[in-house]
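Q: Predict the assembly, please.
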Amino acid sequence: MMSHILKYRLKCFFRDRETLFWTLMFPLILAVLFNLAFSNLYKTEAFKDIKIAVADSAEYREDVIFGSVLEAVSFIDKGNGSAEGDVENGESESGGNNHFFHTLIAENRQEAQALLDNNSIYGYVYYDGGPKLAVRYSGIRQTIIKSFVDEYLQKSYAVNDIISRNISAGGQAGPYGTEDLYLKVASIASERAVFIKDVPASTEAPVSTVIYFYSLIAMAALYGGFWGIRAVSESQADISYQGARVSVAPVHRFKQLICDLTSAMIIQYAEILVLMIFIRYVLGYEFGSQTGLVLIAAFAACLMGISYGAFIGAAVRKSEGIRIAILIGTSMFMSFLSGMMSIEIKYLVVRAFPPVAWLNPSNLVSDAFYTLYYYDTYEKYYTCVAGLFAYAAVFGLSSWLLMRRKKYAAI
Amino acid sequence: MGNPVINVVDLVKKYGNLTALDHLSFMVAEGEILGLLGPNGSGKTTAINCILSLLKFEKGSIEVFGRQMSPDAYDIKRDIGVVMQNVAVFNELTVYENIDYFCGLYVHDKAVRKPYVEEAITFTGLKDFRKFYPKKLSGGLLRRLNIACGIAHKPKLIIMDEPTVAVDPQSRNNILEGIKRLNKNGATVLYTSHYMEEVELICSRIIILDKGKIIASGTKQELKAMIELGEKIRVEGVSLDDVLMEKIKNRPGILVADYRDRALEVRFAREGNGVLGLLNFLRDNGIEMGRLYSEMPTLNDVFLELTGKELRD
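A: Predicted assembly structure:
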């Protein structure tokens, strides 16, 4: 008999176009809109090296230490310094490397100035009693170039000072000669590139845009509550006519409810998988390489969403419209807090109200996916998934406790 | 009277301060069609929901097939068919699928169930609509589907709660004929309605409810015998003056006489027949007569006399 109920409930749910719209089509439409809105953001998030130039001169060539430090952090373009085009739009040839700078060697200061004037570079270094920086505007990239030059100058002054004091004191420069010492300093300075480089926790590039899509999946999972509400409503005699008819049939209420919720779960899980396949293969956003764990997270999210809807259906003894309004309102609010509308909100909640972030089911879903995508450790993933299963258990148990009565005071 | 199929004893049900069923006791015998008649709010549906163990009640006991009824009494429920007042089907399932689904809750063997479903479809005249979704059906066809879902598993007891509400006369006749056929095939029927014509037409015994109490019960003849009213006649196209009207009112056996728009309406007492005498009186006074209508007392008249109000509240 359970297979009979399951078969027909699946048919009912599969043909329920209105709920299918909210649980499948609406998230798909939002995914497309998100993709349109965030595709540019996605591109600009990748770090691009900064185009600069060095004005060639005798003084520059003599400063071998600066040359070697610059080489350590740059892609040196020894072409001819004739790069053209807007730096904002120009793709660096060294894209994908870990260089800070794409450095052109200009023949002289005039040529470097010309490159700066036509926006081919953000700034250039020239020598006039030491390295000097010329920029046209102020901005993040210009600040990075300036910090690099300033830091080089500070370190070289410090080293010069130590060496000069050492020599004036008649001491030896240790096992190294003066030139060796300079080169050692250059080597240390070049390690700057290592100091300021992020040490990745993952082999994946950190793309915050994916969080929007993970939050969208969380919202879609919570929208599974539509199925939960329907399943619960149609098994209660005081809420629906179908519930009354089913209640007078010789079927155990628990069996009936399990069949209804299983059907709901099957439909909802299929919908979430369709959404995830769409996001992965049509829109091109990754979920990481742990497919099995991704599927488990999706399953936990669906289970949480269905049981959340069942809980609303059992606890709110109002009209269907009110129950659906509560589901949509709370789902959207939880998704909002987990960063679906603005990622800054997610960070704000994590910083200012950490318990809200831990307790927000939508946040647990998006964090579970993000952990799988970005981190190489699974501790947080397991915490999130366990949280989702715990929510499903609490909502499911509460729903059953509210529904288990067999007779009603009024119908 | 056959064995009791339903036995309700001293049933009391309250909604807050409102007493919906006030020490209600009645019995439905095997093989009969018992009509529960009463205006809206009289307690008909509440009584049915108590019998089906859907509602809690304050006092009383309910036995079905000689056993105490409870929500877990699946062996009893298996032999009951319920046709709810409201259409309770799934809009996403076709006519066939709806009947098969609800029948399947009672009959688990698919091979046994299939002919049952086909029979219910034929019985309710839904053969041409088996692949239709409920939204495509008219009100009458929906009601028939509702009935088919309730009776497909061939129950011994059928409880019908106002199954013909908002149904066109043609479909209503079809439904009523069907109920009579079900009864003829052996089913006991408890039928509620506020349409006295329906109850008069199909019920072998009638209980009249008002404010949760039984105010009368018996066969329709027994009920009509409880009141003083007799035949009512209406004579159209007559010209009467006040003197003649006064004489008519004073004739023996006449309870009420009214003259309006050249039509005379007279209600006689149950005992004796003064119709012929009245017609002779009119002829003797040179009164020309047009059409003549005669009407026996109805259950509405019974209800009116017992409660002082119309049945269709």
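Chain B touches chain A through 33 residues (CB under 8 Å). The longest strand of chain B covers residues 4-15.
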